[in-house]
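Hi W.,

Here's what went into the run:
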Amino acid sequence: MKHVKKYLLSYTLLPLVIFTVAVSYYRFIVTQDYTIGYEGLCDPTKNSCYIYCEDDECNDPLYYSWIERNAGILYEACGGLVTDCDEAYTCDSDTSCTISFCDSETEECYQLNS
Amino acid sequence: MICYLYEAPKYFFFASDLPQLLYYSHFPAIVISLVVGFFVLLNGPKKLTNRLLFLITVLFSLWVLLSLISWTNTSASLISFIWPFFGVIKTILTILCVYFIYTFLNKGEDVSSAVKTVFLLLLAPVLIFAPTDLSIKGFDLVNCDAFAYEVMYFKYYYTTISYIAIFWIFTLLIKAYKKADGDFKKQIILMGTGMELFLFMFVTFIFIVTYYTNIGVLADSRLEMYGLFGQVAFMVILSILIVKFKTFQTSLISAKALVIALLLLIASQLTFADNASSVVLTILTLLLTTVTGLFLIKSVEKEIKQKSELQKITTQLELANRRLKEVDQLKSEFVSIASHQLRSPLTAIRGYASMVLEESYGKIPDKARIAIKRIEDSSKLMALGIEDYLNVSRIESGNMKYVLSDFNLKNETEKICDDLRTEAMEQGLVLIFRTDLKSKGIVNADIGKTVQIVQNLIQNSIKYTVKGSIKVLVRDDVVRKKIHVDIEDTGIGMSSETLEKIFQKFERASNANSVNVSGTGLGLYVAIKMAEAMNGDISAHSEGDGKGSRFTFTLNLAM
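Here's what came out:
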């Protein structure tokens, strides 16, 4: 009993830490069960787009939407790199996937009037 | 998933598009922490305080290493896996700091089970929720971080625990400081300042920077790097504690650790150096510091060796001194017992010899009278010697009793002179008594002991003077409230070497035996001890062998 009291912290903390590391490893590395967010395609003539400017004059603007989906599903479809994968930019049958466009009421957006 | 906007690192840690400060803040922090932690642990692997400090340094290094990996790497899964552990490690680390402060203040004693349970209860939610959606929900592939997907309640929880730990440590330190004394007070101030500075910088910088990055005010969290410098300051303070106060008892190895840490810090500046002259200057500084460091280690090593030898000698001396005192005490006891045993038969010898000489038992022949007179004289000398031994024994055992009263020192001295004048005249000496007083010459002292001192000094003069005179002068100094009795003779005198030790036990003038062989060498020792006990003093003066002596007995005037 005295021994348990002395090492109370080690006996409870160490298994808890190992559990946390193991579960985290399983979630993030093995199954990749988390949301991944990245820039999607956006046509300013059709949608309200987020805009990114490299300089103050915004000579070469980048219009984009925001895609969020399960990292594991995306990895199965595209492997490690989303930039070379067309499936990465469409949701199709992926129920975890959402594509958000810019909300002009809360953010600065860009949309050409058609 | 790979962060497509960033370059993959070389050798896992090196990316060209990252600020140099990142390496300067991270690498030295890891190495310095680990060096200090390992040195402390190696020096006391079984001490709880050392173990806890080691764990703190390892956890901090792990946090910094994970931070570096998340900065330099582009794998979303790897960074997402690491991300919740920033909170987990920070919480365990701050709680360990509280644990460490507890044991540091209790000199290595472990905390109670109740406190450990509180630690556990605070830590458990962070560990349980870390792998779930309640810590982070996802990962931003564009910015290559998870700030936008952090759950703020999780972040608020572990940050609050960190601040609770900081406050907890503060109250523990204040409480202990009030009770502590001496060097430990200084240690508490240093340890408290170092620990609180480290935790406050670490927790606050990282929380504020990551919070503002999370809400989009800051583009990235590079400012959090400054929060790591608190640990370097803490390590420096720890080194001061180790070197100055021997905390963790690692003075030599901590000097080595300090030098290594310093060298690493300078070497890490090479990551900043962007031209040839900077590189050369840094290398030169490194070389210079290496040489200086080696000298420092050598000198610390030498100092420690000297200190340890000195400590050894001091211990031996203390032991020898204690033994000597014991032996001296035993000797005094032996002398006391032996003297008492001798005195009783001697009184009988003297008494009967005196009665025989007075012809109480009938007429005695002249030849027998001479022999019995010798018996009486020798037993008288022996009785005086025994009285000296007994006095020494009483003085050393603290049993000499002094009954203080006011009396006239001039009158007493004059009486003594009158009594001893016949003895002086028998030896062909003139004993002169004079006074030079502005006061009445009243002193507050033990009259018996005072008479004994003056008698002893005058008798000494008679014994060691072959021809000439003995002058006794009683004079006073009313300003300083002192009265002096000078006994000046034209006797054998003393060399300067003899003068230095004349008041020590069993010491006699080197030429004393040429005049008088009966002295024990204890009379002056007893006299000065008695004088000192009555707030007085005796001093001796002589121009040298054969040039006479002057003894001055001083007491305070009772005015």
